[in-house]
Amino acid sequence: MMDELTHRTGITKTGRLIESSFPPTQQQRHTNRHLRACATMAPPPGLMEIMERITADGRIAFPTVVQYRLKRWDETAQTYVPAELVDLPPTFETHPDEHAHDLARKAGQQPRPATLPYVAVVHDLDAYDRLKATGVLHAAHMTAPMDERTAVDNRAAPGA
User: Fold this and answer.
1) Mean pLDDT of 138-148
2) Confidence check: pLDDT of 77 > 80
3) For residues 101-110, b (16+ Cβ closer than 10 Å) or e, as one string?
4) What pLDDT was estimated at residue 145?
5) Closest listed residue to residue 67, CA positions, set 89, 96, 97
6) Which one, of 56, 65, 61, lies nearest residue 141 by Cα?
7) Which of 125, 7, 117, 154 minimizes the C-alpha distance to 65?
8) Listed range (67-71, 77-81, 107-111, 112-116) with the worst mean pLDDT
C-alpha cells in the first residue's frame, strides 16, 4: 500500500522514484528526499498588513502587534511592580527612572541614562517575529526617521 506522500510526490520514503526501475544514485536519493520533505511544508504566509502609528517624536509604534508593560519602583514593596501599558519602549526622555538615579547618587556615581524596566506584551506573534527578524521593530521604535546618526563599527577588526 502506498502512503499519501508517496502518492502525491512519486517518491518513496527511501528516496526512490516510483516510475523508475533503476536504483537512484546517492545524490538523486538525497535530492528526492528533500523534495519529499518540501511537499510536507506549509505554503509561505501571505502579505501581512500591519497598522503602524507615528508618534510626535518620529518613532513608529505597532500597537496591534506589540505593546510594553512598564514597571515602576514601589517604595512600600521595595520592588518594581507592573504599571501602565504603552505603545513604545521607554526612553530616558519619556520615562526616567528616579529610583535608578537615587541608587547611583547613593553609590557616589553619576546617574546613568537608565529607563524603566519593561516587558513586551505581544498581541500578534507572527507579525512580531517578522518585524523582529527584519530589524524593522528595533529601527522604528528606537530612532526617528529624520535622525542623522553615524554607524560605528564595534567589531574587533573593523571591516572584517
Assistant:
1) 57
2) yes
3) eeeeeeeeee
4) 47
5) 89
6) 61
7) 125
8) 112-116
